[in-house]
Request: fold
Amino acid sequence: MPGLIVCIIALTKARRGRAGVRKTFGIGLALLLIGIILATWLFQNA
Reply:
């Protein structure tokens, strides 16, 4: 899943700079949710 990879990258970047941890975690979480929604939608249409 590309969304999961992006989420992992976002989380690793968030660990480096603690200033934008909440923002990056929020973006990563949103991307993860979008990835789950897209995956379920693709499975339903397949």
